[in-house]
């Protein structure tokens, strides 16, 4: 039975992932600032953590088989409206938070039964495909993709490192973009598969990447975007 660490597992994609991992896990540690929608207990432990704060990080289990870093932003503004502070904030939570997380859990990541341990991070569809209003988040997530490939090379064959690059996924992070039936319909129409993503779509892929079923996949950024990044439907 495996130990998992999910940063940002109190809502959205991370919360859904915790729900998928917990039934077959030995322990799932969740790091976030608030408990939010999480119901700790049993195999699920909540540890208060602001990954961008200078405070010491929570204690870690002796060994971790899978770790996911879910905190992040979808900060949509024109380049003109983006301040340098916007770029700093996006960099802080998307890249430096992930670096802090990985530095802490790296030494504890140990596979079981000959399988490597596994790490999952989150990018965005807007790194591989230029989109207006995405300059700050795309720049930060582009750095995450570079980190993923570098670390995957450095940590092979002991630890696999992959990222998921979602388009719009219905979570509290993007509430405002889906706040009316009209907005929801307009957003769904942009995708070849004619719907936006769900937290369950993203969590299922994250669970797969954390499991030995994806044991020959590392250094990849997998699109989760209803076909948006590759199809002209
Ligand atoms: N949803 C989308 O459409 C979409 C699209 C592209 C990429 N993504 C990426 O996918 C990932 C997951 O997104 P989501 O939509 O599930 O996000 P979400 O609903 O906003 O959830 C974010 C999680 O991270 C935690 N968190 C935020 N700041 C934190 C901090 N400083 N320290 C510790 N924990 C923190 C939050 O809990 P607390 O606030 O309690 O700390 C929460 O549990 C993110 O990296 C995002 O950039 C999402």
The CATH superfamily appears as NAD(P)-binding Rossmann-like Domain
CATH second-level architecture = 3-Layer(aba) Sandwich
In order across it, which strands form the biggest sheet?
A: 3-2-1-4-5-6-9
Structural class: alpha/beta
Bound molecules: NADP nicotinamide-adenine-dinucleotide phosphate
Helix content, binned percent? 25-40%
* Overall morphology: globular
Percent of residues in beta strands: 15-25%
CATH topology group: Rossmann fold
Gyration radius (Cα, Å) is: 17 Å
Number of strands: 9
Poorly predicted runs are none
Level-1 CATH class name: Alpha Beta
The structural domain count equals 1
Average of per-residue pLDDT values: 97
Characterize the largest beta sheet: strand count, sense, and whether it forms a barrel: 7 strands, parallel
How would you sum up this structure, described in words?
By secondary structure, the protein is an alpha/beta fold. The protein has a single domain, classed as Rossmann fold. Helix content is 33%, strand content 19%. The protein has helices at 12-21, 84-105, 125-128, 135-155, 181-189, 199-210; strands at 2-7, 25-32, 44-48, 66-69, 117-122, 159-166, 169-170, 197-198, 221-224. The strands form two sheets. It has a seven-stranded parallel sheet with strand order 3-2-1-4-5-6-9, with helices on both faces. Strands 7-8 form a two-stranded parallel sheet. Helix 2 runs parallel beside helix 4. The mean pLDDT is 97.
């Amino acid at each position: 039975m495996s130990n998992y660490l999910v940063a940002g597992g109190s809502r959205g994609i991370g919360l859904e992932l915790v729900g998928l991992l917990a039934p077959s896990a030995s322990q799932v540690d969740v790091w976030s600032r608030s408990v939010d929608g999480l119901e700790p207990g049993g195999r699920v432990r909540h540890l208060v953590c602001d990954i961008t704060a200078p405070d010491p990080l929570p204690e870690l289990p002796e060994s971790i088989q899978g770790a996911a870093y879910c905190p992040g932003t979808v900060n949509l503004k024109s380049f003109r409206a983006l301040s340098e502070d916007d770029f700093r904030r996006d960099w802080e939570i998307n890249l430096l938070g992930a670096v802090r997380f990985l530095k802490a859990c790296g030494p504890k990541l140990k596979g079981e039964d000959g399988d490597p341990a596994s790490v999952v991070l989150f990018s965005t569809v807007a790194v591989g495909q230029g989109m207006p209003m995405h300059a700050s988040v795309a720049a930060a997530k582009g750095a995450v993709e570079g980190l993923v490939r570098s670390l995957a090379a450095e940590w092979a064959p002991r630890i696999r490192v992959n990222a998921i690059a979602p388009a719009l996924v219905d979570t509290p992070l993007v509430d405002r973009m889906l706040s009316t039936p009209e907005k929801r319909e307009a957003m769904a129409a942009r995708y070849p598969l004619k719907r936006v993503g769900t937290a369950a779509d993203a969590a299922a892929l994250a669970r797969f990447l954390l499991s030995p079923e994806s044991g020959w996949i590392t250094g990849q950024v997998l699109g989760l975007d209803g076909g948006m990044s590759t199809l002209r439907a």
